[in-house]
Specification:
- The protein starts with 17 loop residues before the first helix and ends in a 5-residue tail after the last helix.
- It is built from seven helices and no strands.
- The protein is mainly α.
């Protein structure tokens, strides 16, 4: 789900486009049938790579710590596009396939840019500037340092960095 549909912050966009899911499956099958040694090498790297992420508890997200898996998946997707293009024998159908692939990536990129520049700023403003900023303001009013304030949060590390950012600095 996170690879193709919903990444951490941006909803409706993962690390790859939806059309990449089709090319990933085609690339896996084509590489398995045509270049079996390379397929086994890449799959073994793909299986070994998450071990360091699973062992480590440092950082915000598993996906960010496992980011080195993405180039292996990209190799399979690229091989899927490449082999699909050369499987088509008819020159006209090959050009139609190339044009359709380019158009689908342009549409995906345009939707990503729209989401990134118009939707995401609204989501982030509502996420950081209201609750975290209000909490930081409340904490700045607390002058009695002996009283203990307990804050329960779903993602405490993000909340902590936001509070540090919005907390007024004393000179």
């Amino acid at each position: 789900k996170a690879l193709f549909y919903s990444a951490e912050v941006i909803k409706f966009f993962g690390f790859f486009y939806i059309v990449d899911a089709v090319f990933l499956v085609l690339g896996l099958f084509q590489m398995f049938s045509q270049k079996r040694k390379l397929f086994y090498l890449l799959v073994s790297i793909l299986l070994i790579a998450p071990i360091s992420t699973a062992v480590s508890m440092h950082g915000f997200s598993i996906l960010n710590r496992g980011i080195l898996i993405l180039p292996i998946i990209l190799i399979f997707i690229t091989y899927g596009v490449y082999s699909s293009y050369y499987l088509i024998q008819n020159i006209l159908l090959r050009k139609i396939f190339a044009a359709g692939t380019v158009i689908s990536y342009i549409v995906g990129f345009s939707l990503f840019m729209y989401t990134y520049f118009f939707i995401l700023p609204i989501q982030l403003i509502s996420h950081y500037r209201t609750t975290t900023r209000a909490l930081a303001k409340y904490l700045s009013f607390e002058t009695d340092r002996r009283s203990k304030i307990t804050i329960i949060a779903r993602d405490p590390q993000v909340l902590y960095t936001g509070i540090l950012f919005y907390l007024p600095r004393s000179s």
